[in-house]
Design brief:
The complex is a heterodimer of chains A (112) and B (114). Chain A has strands at 3-5, 10-14, 19-21, 24-26, 32-38, 45-49, 60-61, 72-74, 83-90, 101-102, 106-111. Chain A is an all-beta fold and 112 residues long. Chain B contains no helices and eleven strands. The chains are: A mainly beta (112), B mainly beta (114). At the A-B interface, strand 5, strand 6 and strand 10 of A face strand 4, strand 5, strand 9 and strand 10 of B.
Chain lengths: 112, 114
Amino acid sequence: AQRVTQPEKLLSVFKGAPVELKCNYSYSGSPELFWYVQYSRQRLQLLLRHISRESIKGFTADLNKGETSFHLKKPFAQEEDSAMYYCALSGHGGGATNKLIFGTGTLLAVQP
Amino acid sequence: NAGVTQTPKFRILKIGQSMTLQCTQDMNHNYMYWYRQDPGMGLKLIYYSVGAGITDKGEVPNGYNVSRSTTEDFPLRLELAAPSQTSVYFCASQDYGQGEEKAFFGQGTRLTVV
């Protein structure tokens, strides 16, 4: 079954500290992995996707197929990073396999 | 290009009432989704559609119905509102298969059933 697990509901760090938001997944095959972010009073939006291998707002995420993980990292947290972060996956092959499944989300709070 | 538009933004329903949450996208996306967001529970998929005329159940479809008569519109129907349906509802669309698999979200509908 497709599943995305984010074990932390809340992660509180101080400004300048490193951040790691954990995401593990269950999928039979090779999924596409995403991180979405929801800032206060804003729409949910894509932060990054594993296939792009890019860094957005200082965040990176590496897909580890052996550990079935896609943790989101940033070396130095900023107050403006405070938001709700969702890990998501979708499959390949067309039709229902491509539907987007989300984890339960982690609220990142960056303290000054 | 308005993206994904949801209406209404807020609604209070009485138990047993019905309503339709509207969702429209102008990006010609094939995939569309309805999610509900409950505190501490994240986003749960209610229904989704892979194209006009095709819909399927997600994780939590009970109490809801959808239709996809056009590519643009994907309304969500609540027939007999219950307090358990108090939530924030998000519609999303995605252009899967065209190299840009990013999903675009509406601004959400906050529904309270009393």
